[in-house]
Structures are given as structure tokens and as C-alpha cells.
Amino acid sequence: MGCCDTPGLMPVETALEKILDQVTPLEGSTTIALPDAMGYVVAEDIRSPINVPPFANSAMDGYAVRTADLANTDTLTLAGKSFAGIPFEGEWHAGQCIRIMTGAQMPEGADAVVMQEETDVDGDNIRFLVKPPANDNVRPIGDDVRLNDVVVAKGTRITAREMPLLASLGIATISVLVRPKVAFFSTGDELRPLGEPLEAGQIYDSNRYGIRALLEKFGCDVLDLGIIPDCPEQLREAFHKASTEADVLVTSGGVSVGEADYTKDILDEQGEIGFWKIAMKPGKPFAFGTINNAWFCGLPGNPVSAMLTLYQLVQPMLAKLSGHTQYQAPQRMKAKATTLFKKRPGRTDFQRGIYSINAEGQVEVATTGNQGSGAFSSMHHANCFVVLERERGRVEAGEEVTIELFNHTMY
Fold first, then answer.
1. For 129, phi and psi rounded to 5 degrees?
2. 137, 149, 185, 319: which could join 324 in a potential S-S bond, CB 3.0 to 4.6 Å?
3. Which residues form the MoaB/Mog domain (predicted)?
4. What residues does each domain of the chain span?
5. What is the pLDDT of residues 171-205, one digit of tens each?
């Protein structure tokens, strides 16, 4: 935790590595109904209780046939029909065929389906314009999922992609890991709640809303403790409540090294906190450690800095804490800058950008304009971060840069 005793700034990658090395997944699971499972992490491998499809069925509207019956003729007589949910259950003999709809169960003995467009129909006489191979246009039993297959692995977060899959297997409840509970609050006498008029020197509390939105997108349960004034007694009470009722406490502001602030003083008293200076812009001051029974993440106070550090450092930490083993860092790719990006060497710069694909299929990126750590309107216009390397300087239009696409938590 004594990283700030060493000179210089800590690389972003080192800070994240230090965090992830210390955090271990929460213990405990619960069983919930499938409709309530969105965003939860699966506690154990989910295996299929059935084959999907559970019976061989037709992939086309057409006619089910025995391919052997078409070896010496091109015309068969109609013996019946098979519809989805109403299979053909009678007898049919050599030289006959069955009208069948997409998804309907294959009649016993049929081994192919000829699509209706490849037939001529004259009453009950069906002339086939093709001779199908065996299994043509037939979905066999278990074609999609076989009995006892692992369909969703332990550590997967449930999304809209998993919901219909599990429903198709008739799975009504699943075992999921407990979700991290994250407490957060804002501090400062200058902060005012929304809907109240501002007086001289006051600003609206905005960080709390961005923090809550991201935490909920990360799949956490949240405990919003509101605005805490710069009062040592109230701050101590808030820190105690948050750190005993939640798994993680997130605050913004008051964690700069050397900053005269009640927040930092109380953290020194109650926790084991490392106050780091990270080589990232925006977002240099960051604190991490433990306070009572909770992990603590202290974000910078400026709005963009708070959101960026939460996104880059706290998001993967919470993924590990939640047991989300399938978590992947936001996707990065190369792009051509179409505008100037101002930068000085010394810190990895996460500038807000707008990427697009040009007429030649190349990825391009332009700045959103004002890159100040308090200019939050630039986040509204952005769809990516332009990640400029620590020792890189000014970027001219036409140069290649790395961009990081926003993941689902930003939308």
C-alpha cells in the first residue's frame, strides 16, 4: 500500500494489476427465477436437461419423403400432413409422402424433406423436381444442444443472449453468485441536490449520478448515501455505515496526496489505504485499499476523472469480485486521427473521441473537442476513448492512434 512513497507516477497497468492481485471473488450463491437473472453471474455450470430439438424436424415447408422411394420414380402420393405441434401419427407406405411444415416433427421412416418450391402438385400426386440426399433439410435430435451439454459456464454473466437459450431448455431457476453491494456518497459543502437553486460558490452534485449509473451497469447492488457535508462526525458515520453494510465503498474527491481534507484524514484513521498517483489523464489521484470490512476505491473529484477511473480500474475489480470469469476488457483497435489531439508526454491520456468508418472501410477518429477533466459534455458526444501512450506527445491529423470502444456499460 506504500506505493506513493516511491517517486514518479504509477502506470495504469500496474495500478490495475495491484488491485486485481488483492481482490478475490465474493462467496455465496442463491437461486433465482430466470426472469430475474439478467446481470447475475452463474454460480455453477448449467447443463441442458433435454435435447434441442427434442425430435427430428423439418427445416423447410415441403414434403417429407423416404429417399429410397424416389430412386425409380419422381412422383409420390400424399398420405397426410405434419404441422408444428400436430405431428403425423398415421401409417404411410412405400410410394407415399407427407406434407410437412417448418419445425414439424419428421414422420417415422422419413429421411429427407423436399422444399415445396421443388415440386409440382396435382391433387394428391406430388412430382419431385429433385432427388434429395438423405437428411436433406432435416434438423436431427440435439442438432443445437444435446442432453447434458454445458450451455452456460460458471462465471458467465447472464445477458439477453443467454435468457432465450435457457428458456428454450425449460430451465425456470438458476444458481447465481451474490452480487457485490457498493456504497457511495458525495462529500463537500459546495454540493447541492438537484432541483435546488445554486448560491454563490455552489455546484450541483453530478458525480454520484454517473457513479450510480455505471455501478448498476456493472451488475452491482447499490447503496446511495447521498451528500455528506464536510463535517468530521458525519463523515465518520457515513464511512462506518458504508464499510460495514457494503462490500465496496466508492467516493469521489478528497484523495489527492497532501490534500487537506477530512475524507483523507478519516481514511488514514479507519482503513489501510494506498494513495496513488497514477500516470493517467484525466484521473491522476486514486486511492485503493480496505476500510473495516469493505474494499475502498477513492476516485478523483473532477467528473470525467471520476468516471474514467471507475471505468478503467474499478470495473474490472468489480467483475473479479462478482466472480465474472468471462469478463473482457473493452475492445481496442487502431484508427486514423482526422483531427489534432493535444498531449504532453508523461501520462497515458484517455481522450474522448468519435470513431467512424469511412467510405474505404477505414476506422477514423476525431476529437470531441474540450478534453478538460470537468468538461463532461464531451463524454455525451463520445463513443470511444482515444488512448494516447504515456510518452507520446501531440498527435497530428493522419497519424495512427489506438482507440478503445465503449462497452455496454456506457450505453
1. -85, -10
2. 319
3. 183-320
4. 12-27+179-322, 30-52+148-177, 57-139, 332-405
5. 999 999 999 999 999 888 888 888 999 999 999 99
Cα–Cα distances in angstroms (integers) from residue 294 to residues 73, 172, 181, 201, in the given order: 78, 34, 10, 34
- Cβ-contact 395, 336 below 8 angstroms: no
Given 3.20.20.70, 3.30.420.40, 3.90.700.10, 2.170.190.11, which CATH number is that of 57-139?
2.170.190.11
Domain at 12-27+179-322, CATH homologous superfamily: MoaB/Mog-like domain (3.40.980.10)
Reported CATH class of domain 30-52+148-177: alpha beta
Nearest to residue 48, comparing CAs of 138, 139, 140, 153?
153
Rounded (5°) CA angle 164-168-169: 125
Per DSSP bridges, beta strands 221-228 and 181-187 are parallel
The answer to whether 289 and 357 are in contact (CB under 8 A) is no
Return the H-helix or E-strand segment holding 79: strand 75-82
pTM, rounded to two decimals = 0.86
Phi (first) and psi of residue 48, to 5 degrees = -75, 130
